[in-house]
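Q: Could you fold this chain for me?
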Amino acid sequence: MYLGNAAVPVLCLLNFASSAVADRSLRHRKEGPSLNFGEDEDDYIVVFKDRASHVTFMENEIEAVNCVRHLDFINAEVLRLSNADASQWAERDDVLIFEQDQKVTAFSEEVPHGIIMVEALDIDYVANSGVKACVIDTGYGLGHPDLPTESHVEITGFNPYSDGRWFVDGQGHGTHVAGTMVAIGNNGIGVVGVTSNASMPLHIGKGLGDDGNGSNSGVLAAMESCVQSGAKVINMSLGGPGASGAVEEFLTKLENDGTDVLIVAAAGNNGDSSFSFPASYNSPLVMSVAAVESNGDRAGFSQYNNQVDIAAPGVDIKSTVTMNAGRDFGYTSWDGTSMASPHVAGVAALIWSHYPSKSVADVRTALECSAVMPEQYGDD
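A: Sure. Below is the predicted structure, expressed as structure tokens.
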């Protein structure tokens, strides 16, 4: 079954992009492309070659043309011309630049299909609910324009290794995972996360280095830092083929202590029924997440076994990333159970923020009961 019922109306926010016109777009004197004029009327930006030429035009010709807008600061006018007249204007010696006044269009901030599938935008995260999320990964691209910073909400972190910093993601994986969980909505750029109002406190455990690799002991130390920070939900889009007795002991201790924390982990990308850890630990605190495509079918790469609890979108998931060893920021689409897991972790935090007194067992049950059962498996 895949996560389904957790979506707010998609907000249409303005950004600006020029709609390029191939044939009659720009004329730089003697250098621009040739202009192919039709029969329609259009608006054109006319930049005169100097101030004197502009003044001469204004004194002698302005009354004879349809002037749409004055652009005196660049010695230019916007003229509405028939295309027959425009062809003559394009050859005038007193004109420096002659170009079509291209249309500028508004487009929506993109809501990735995974966010729509899990219906995350139907409800908002409740600020000050005390529900904190933790991401154990390659770090966090602090400063990415589409991710929360300390100016929005509390963000802390921990790095168990001697190299690197938790707030620098030299690989990009952790920032992609975090974006699926918390990318800021209603800001007119990029993408939207499951909890998109930039009010959920975060803790970052850099359990993986900037090369994307780590150790069981490093990951275990990051897990402990998440628990000590007060995180209720921990996302772990990472794993290996072997179980760790030390990690199992830690999970048992958390369970025995009554610690209310849900660990959401990626099932693995081997495309078979093998087990990966931490997803496959037999603990009520751990949820193993497989990946589905946008139509709900299992992704071919996703592992499947009797420890998988739930599935979520994991194919062509667009999110935030870092580039150039963490120095630059951007967006890209990746596949993997690593991309599926933060959908579940984000929804868990979203639900828990509305019912902060509920137990980890309650939240887990809510996730499983609200998931969509594919038709081929019936109603069981």
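A (continued): Residues 337-354 form the longest helix (18 residues).
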